[in-house]
Amino acid sequence: MSDTPIMAKATAVWLVDNTTLSFKQIADFCGLHELEVQGIADGDVATGVKGFDPITNNQLTQEEIDKAEKSPTHRLKLKFNAAAVGEEKRRGPRYTPLSKRQDRPNAILWLVKFHPELADSQISKLVGTTKPTIQTIRERTHWNISNMEPIDPVALGLCKQVELDAAVAKAAERKARDGGVMTDDERRKLVSTETSLGMDAEPKMPTAISGLETFTLSETSDDDEDEDENKALPDADSLFNLPESSGDEDEGSR
User: Fold this and answer.
1) What integer is the mean pLDDT of 49-55?
2) ∠ CA 30-32-37 to the nearest 5 degrees?
3) 140: left (phi > 0), else alpha (psi -120 to 50), else beta?
4) Span 24-42, mean pLDDT?
5) Where does the record place the region Disordered (predicted)?
6) Fewer CB within 10 A of the terminal residue: the chain, N end or C end?
7) How far apart are CA 194 and CA 248, in angstroms?
8) Which among 6, 43, 16, 42 has a CA at the least distance from the CA of 25?
9) CA gap 168, 195 in Å, rounded
10) Average of pLDDT values for 214-240?
11) Cα angle, residue 106 at apex, residues 104 and 108 outer, rounded to 5°
12) Domain limits of the chain?
């Protein structure tokens, strides 16, 4: 069983609003940073998140909360739930703050455009979205596709650069394992930024001489050249081979 409550941030919101527990006690119980809990109390974090009651949801007892309120050093203990023993934490899309959710489609469009090799499951994990949404953006059938523009999810703060690098590296391994042949541009997309900067570019043939790779100049002897010249010269007699006229016709004409 997990050591933190389900819906940890919503639980922290409830504890901030309904108890006198210290920020540290709430942070330790919910698996958050103490400053993040302070941000919840100040209204800067988890704006719009509805509190999740840990008592009615069988995660804490009122007695445990009372004990912690009387002793600031007391650490809250998650209520034992026999039904949850052996149950793994449910995996779902990454939580995205409300302020950044409107930028998520732009981040998906960036990933689809510049890293089409990423699987939908990887994109979903990076920016916290669903596969149907990714599919509509891939197929350009999203309702707002005409107003969207690709924006790097790292720049938007939806994921970290190391997470993106790890995802593209995994995609590179998968493509290499499947036997796919990558171009120079694809190689640079499928590796981290640091690695791609140190890669040598593939030698490319100028387009002006494309198709002439096997063209070679062969040496010809003087005899061959003379023979070719003789073949090229026309026969003089063939140019002036006019029909001979008879003498009678010449006299008649006079």
Assistant:
1) 89
2) 95
3) left
4) 90
5) 193-254
6) C
7) 102
8) 16
9) 12
10) 54
11) 70
12) 8-84, 98-197
Burial zone of 169 (CB within 10 Å; 0-12 exposed, 13-18 middle, 19+ buried): middle
Highest mean pLDDT among 165-169, 182-186, 214-218: 165-169
Residue 216 tokens read as 């070679």
pLDDT one-digit tens code per residue, 167-178 = 988 888 888 887
The 8-class DSSP code of residue 57 comes to: T
The residue whose two tokens read 């930028």 is 103
Q: State the Cα–Cα distance between residues 177 and 225, nearest whole angstrom.
A: 57
Q: How many helices (H) and strands (E) does the chain have?
A: 15, 0
pLDDT at 110 over 90: yes
If one compares 96 and 149, the residue with the highest pLDDT of the two is 149
- From the list 67, 84, 83, 61, the residue with the least C-alpha distance to 25 is 67
pLDDT band at 6 (very low <50, low <70, confident <90, very high): confident
Neighbour tally for 60: CB within 10 Å? 23
